[in-house]
Amino acid sequence: MGYKLEREKTELTPYVLIDEESGLMKFEGESYHENIFEFFKEIREWLTEYLKTDFDAFTFDCELKYFNSSTVKVLLGMLLEMDSCDNCDKITVNWITTKNNRIIIECGEDFEEDVENLTFNLIAN
Amino acid sequence: MDGMYEREQKTLDDALAHLKDVRSGAPVCAELFETVVSEYKLLLRHQQKLIKITDKASTNMITGQKEQINELKNIVHYDVLTGIYNRRYMEENLRRVIKLVSRSGGVLSVLMLDIDYFKKYNDTYGHSQGDTCLRSVAEAITDSLSRAEDFAARYGGEEFAVVLPHADAKGAKMIAEKIIANINALNIPHKKSEAAKHVTVSIGLTTGNVLHGQSYESYLKRADEALYMSKNNGRNQYTYIDFV
Questions:
Q1: CA–CA distance from B114 to each of A108, B119, B134, B135 (Å)?
Q2: Distance, in angstroms, between A87 CA and closest chain B CA?
Q3: A5-15 pLDDT per residue, tens
Q4: Model pLDDT for residues B125-181, shown as the tens digit of each residue
Q5: ipTM of the complex
Q6: Which of A42, B6, B171, B236 allows an S-S link to B195, with CB 3.0 to 4.6 Å?
């Protein structure tokens, strides 16, 4: 059985779901804890190891509404790591936001600019 | 924070180690120098991207906070049931109006309204119907106002207040008549009313020359005195008294 992690969202940290078996990682909510790098430590470490494995498909749903600069650094690091791994063509990133939130859509476009190999979808519901 | 700049730190360490070697007499390694430079370029680009996205994220957060503040303002200023201003906002705004009108030496009219025999209405038709009646009356009152500066508020229970800045007695009386006519026209059945067969209102009206230092309470009190006269005279009418 693969790695599984679920963390409820708090006022400063997002809801996190990782289900290795179904190849899914999901962040949702707000992320601006001053120690957010530490919050993502276990997740980053798992991701680094997971990306070395021979997975069939991996989806990362990212639905963050508010986030701080440390979160941006974590996300950028993760995206670049995904984009440069051997299985990068099996990765789909969904940047999810609401239709009227132009600013967050633009943030997604900025992230998208820096990835070349994985599939990056901007989803405005 | 440890680990957050791991890659940056490694690049710096590699460069410093090479510099140390060169200082000790080792030849300059162009390849290593190129690696450090290209890594620096990449990190710089990431840094620029990070700031760009972070700036947008901050703007988004401030926009969100402003929206929340506006929502809260709405909650604080409006009466939940009728959707018109509440007493708190009315008093706040009336105080501001007095201050402003006093500067130009203008007049101010204030109306107090009460739905006639509303307790009996509630007892007869139930609270839910009572709420509907309050909403209809509130709408009829606001429909009777045409100038942007005029405003109505639910003062409490079945009592409403209307503030008409710069409106003289003649203009205010016309508004009072219009409100009474509009509410009669709603024709909301009220079999327990002793004033009519439908829902009616009594109005007290006062107009004064606004002077610096006058209290908003004194205008409301005077309008309330006029309201009681209307009630004592059989309701479904307005009474005007000068503000003194």
A1: 56, 11, 11, 14
A2: 22
A3: 999 999 999 99
A4: 999 999 999 999 999 999 999 999 999 999 999 999 999 999 999 999 999 999 999
A5: 0.85
A6: B236
Which domains are seen in chain A, by residue range? 4-124 (3.30.750)
Q: Distances in Å between the alpha carbon of A103 and those of A18, A90, A123, B56, B225?
A: 27, 28, 13, 6, 55
**Count of C-beta atoms within a 10 Å radius of residue A40:** 24
B79 token code pair: 């009466």
| pTM for this prediction | 0.66
Q: Do A103 and B46 touch (CB under 8 A)?
A: no
Using alpha carbons only, what angle is made at residue B113 by residues B82 and B91, rounded to the nearest 5 degrees?
70
Which residue in chain B has the smallest CA separation from A72?
Answer: B50
A 10-69 residues inside an 8 A Cβ radius of B:
32, 37, 41, 65-69
Q: Are strands A91-97 and A119-124 parallel, antiparallel or unpaired?
A: parallel
Cα B222 to Cα B75: distance, rounded to the nearest angstrom: 29
